[in-house]
Amino acid sequence: MLPQKMKKAITDNPKQLANLIDLVNLPSTLRDFVGQSQISHLGCFMRVWSYIKTNNLKDPNNKNVVNCDEKLKSILLGKQQVELVELPALIKLHFPKQKKFP
Amino acid sequence: MGKFPPSFRSAISSTSLIKNTPSQQQQQPHYFPKKLTKKNSPKPHETQTPPPQKSLFKTSSLNEAKSLFNSFISTTKAPLLDNLRLHNSFLQSYTSISTLDDSISLLDHMVKTLPSLSPDRSTYHVLLSQSCREPDSPLSSAQKVLNLMVNKGFKPNQFTVDVAIRSLCSVGRVDDAILLVKEFSSKHSKPDTFTYNFLVKCLCKSRIFNSVYSFIDEMKSSFDIKPDLVTYTILIDNVCNAKNIREADRLVAVLKECGLKPDAFLYNTIMKGYCLLNKGIEAVRIYKQMKEEGVEPDLVTYNTLIFGLSKCGRVSEAKKLLKIMVESGHFPDAVTYTSLMNGMCREGDALGAAALLEEMELKGCSPNSCTYNTLLHGFCKGRMLNKGVELYGVIKKGGMKLETASYATFVRALCREGRVAEAYEVFDYAVESKSLTDVAAYTTLESTLKWLKKAREQGLAV
What we know:
Helix content of chain A: 40-55%
Distance between the termini of chain B: 29 Å
Radius of gyration of chain A: 16 Å
Largest interface: A-B, 25 and 26 residues
Shape of chain B: extended
Oligomer: heterodimer
Distance between the termini of chain A: 41 Å
Strand order of the largest sheet of chain A: 1-2
Helix content of chain B: over 70%
Number of helices of chain B: 29
Radius of gyration of chain B: 28 Å
């Protein structure tokens, strides 16, 4: 059945899991936003999403769009407006795939 | 989605719990039975120790334990001092952190300082269970305790076997357990059926079936300990979980040869096996066979059948069975209805399933979170998103958890309609209510959004 399969897919793929929860050294732009020097991919997403929620940045006319303030703009490619659909992809940009260690 | 009712499992595992009541009281009239229940299940046994004593021992140092005991008897009132149970639990909490030799020395010290204290069988059982619970110690340490026990005039009996076997199995020393059981059977006393079945159950978990069979054969030929119905049920359950139904059929034939009569539990186990393999028809065959033999089907039988039939798409038969079930005086519970709803949702009849929910509530059977999740899944699959959102409101209000499948389907359905903000809200709820791990919830959301973006680029979605 589906749930077991999906669970399995996640646990079977430790690399994907690791990519999401491993702490990563942040570039300076992100460091300013997060306020710490290391964070995981998942943690970063949660942080941005809760930032949007606490500051009420969602567009009142279209709930699927976020109006960025200056701080948010700095980490989301300087866009004025960001669609919620794009959000995970935009955050992923900060967490490029790790190259194999030489 | 349709899960097996927990009663399936308990049908088998509860046997070890049933054991304590009848057999013990016959043999040990005092407070002893209570003492033994403590040790029969090695895990609760630590938690049952009185809380102040638990924090008594901060180090495993023997000297400190001795001085603690001295201060303990000097501050305790006289009538309490005669209570052997108190001393036993004192010793017991020390054993949980110390080595066996230290525990034995402590017992010596206790007897010396308090001459009125005479250790009884359960005192030695405490030591025995410690010696068996040490993961890497050889079997000789258990034998040492046994010798000590025999020297004091306590012949090992069935409880001794039980304590030893359960302790050994709890740390995974199954090989030692087999050795010890054989030794006991030849020297002292045979294990009773509960100990025996417990050991078989442990063996099934860690061994291949052939070695389990050879153990059973050996016990039968050397010590005349025959497998009973429970043993066979355990075997069949494990065989079925390994999806080996043919072997289960063979086992049924074998047990009938032995003159045992299959009961409802056993049939339920086989049916469960067929349902796992999506063979609802075969399960019905077993049901008929069961009726022919005059075994009365119980609630679990009907639940299994309805679940199995729903799962392989024979909802109309499942509905008929529900009627039969009610006519024969059983009350369908949440599991029954959820299984049936699952089947209806699979057929795309989510509205029918919703009607069933109302009927169920009308009859005073309260739905559980599994019911709601099944229905939510059904609504989303049947493209009735608004109904799904309504139901999600109920789930949220009731503080119920979302299941992985229904969460994923719901998020996908919301995104398909372009209601991304709501999908984010569902994500928040899933994380908040700890329904899923953050990672699972996020990967689902991420992949759904990725998919949506792609679809939009191709001009497919809103």
